[in-house]
Amino acid sequence: MHPVHLMLPGFLMVTSTYGLARYTYGAFLPQIKADFALGHILCGLVGSLPHLSYLIATFLAIWLADHKGLKHPVFLGGAIAVTGLLLVSVSTKLWILSIGIITGGMSGGFVWTVMPKIITKLIAVSEQDRVISFMNAGPTLAVFLTGPLAFWLGNDWKFIWGIFCIIALFSYLWMIKVLAPAYISLETTRSVSKISIQALLKPGKYFFTASFIFGLGTGTFFTYAVELIQNINGDSLIWNKFIMSFVGLGGISTMLTAYVLKKLTIKFLYNVVSLLLSLSVLLLPFSCSILSQGVTAVVFGISFYSFSALLVIWGIHLFKEHQAEANGIMLFLLALGQFLSPISIGYLLNYFSLHYLFVGSGLLLGLLLLFQPYHEHRAKRITYKSVDSRWSGLPQPDTYSVLKGDRKLAKR
Fold first, then answer.
1. What are phi and psi of 137, to 5 degrees?
2. Cβ-contact 167, 16 below 8 angstroms
3. How far is 97 from 99, CA to CA, in rounded Å?
4. pLDDT in tens, 18-73
5. Between the CA of residue 257 and those of 261, 312, 375, 380, what are the distances in Å?
6. pLDDT less than 70: residues of the chain
7. What is the rounded distance in angstroms from the CA atom of residue 275 to the CA atom of residue 343?
8. Helices 94-122 and 125-136: crossing angle, nearest 10°?
């Protein structure tokens, strides 16, 4: 399949499911908080709901792909996104809003868990990193749209969710048209040899640990950044509505991740992105001018979505035969962190200001520097064949093998 034929509908599908149905709650939190009279703890609880449902969907997607084929999680995720966004747009009670957020949050888990595997089956190897990076930028469009829509439509956030629902419906129908006649290789994954979760966790301990920390630290920004900016600037400043749009604007750069990886080692890029991610969250409470707030938001967008793309690409190269399973666990841990983050912050707001909690989240993200892709090469009995040299930062031999107790890479 030509990359463009999957890139464009895939980009819009990820925009709808992983972006619109999951990440836009925080952008409209002040309006939702006012309309439903939510307290700190309830705000955090509702904000965690899409991440909780995402957790469930990642494992359901793996099971569904294993028994029914890779297409079915994508189709189900698209339908669920439309349903969830529609429920939010017509919500008059908190329980309707909650069901809509839960339903919409599941959609990204179904779609993005299997999409990298679909890419490896339908797209040439030389184009796979580029397609993944492009699709991974989908949520940036969703986040970017929140600012202009909030400005033009004021506080009518339910109508905005109705627009999101229409976009999701269009992407869903487009993806059905593309994947419905796709190759037989998408029909089932049951022929792939089974592997236990423990067998995946052992060689990927740095990979999965980084995923959890990433989710835990960034959940604070997506849920509470707009509220923090309002605390700093005051409620009346129009700029407050655009802060998340600058996050989306910065995130567009993730499309260049695959290109950058051809020039730099993943270890170097990982360290730069992790450092920028940590600083952007840590410094936001100290950004008192519109310029500094805009720069911080753009840097967060660049680093967040670039790190997301790095995780997917890292997983594909690390787990050759069990990409769907490994990607599902990675997304589960990422979503687990993002689920725990709003709940924890909502509770801690009773004791600490939002400024201190952002500083703490930024310092937590700094721990990502301790879990680099290079360390995966030191896992016991892992052999890499035909792995691009950028993944190790070392000259590429025919085969590398790492033996227990031996810290040197030995050529077999």
1. -80, -5
2. yes
3. 6
4. 778 777 777 777 788 888 888 878 888 887 888 788 888 888 888 888 888 888 89
5. 6, 11, 21, 29
6. 154, 182-199, 235-237, 257-258, 320-321, 323-324, 374-412
7. 25
8. 160
Same domain membership, residue 60 and residue 18: yes
CA separation for the pair 230, 227 (Å, rounded): 5
Same domain, 263 and 411: no
Rounded Cα distance, 337 and 260, in Å: 28
d(CA 80, CA 172): 10
* Beta sheet of 399-401, edge-to-edge order: 383-385, 399-401, 410-411
The secondary structure element, H or E, covering residue 389 is: none
Considering just the CA atoms, what is the radius of gyration of the chain in Å?
A: 21
Instruction: Fill in the amino acid letter for 343.
Output: I
Question: How many C-beta atoms surround the C-beta of residue 236 within 10 A?
Answer: 7
Contact 359, 227 (CB under 8 A): no
358 plus 394 within the same structural domain: no
Coil, helix or strand at residue 381: coil
CA distance 244 to 240: 9
The total number of structural domains that make up the chain: 2
Tokens of 98: 């909650």
Cβ contact 245:141 at 8 Å: no
Distance CA 101, CA 161 (A): 11
- Which residue's structure tokens are 């979760």? 197
Crossing angle of helices 290-318 and 94-122, in 10° steps, is: 50
Q: Which two tokens stand for residue 33?
A: 């908080």
Domain that holds residue 333: 3-188+196-379
Both 333 and 410 in a single domain? no
pLDDT at 130 (0 to 100): 82
Query: What is the DSSP annotation of 90-159?
Result: T--SHHHHHHHHHHHHHHHHHHHHHHHHHHHHHS-HHHHHHHHHHHHTHHHHHHHHHHHHHHHHTT-HHH
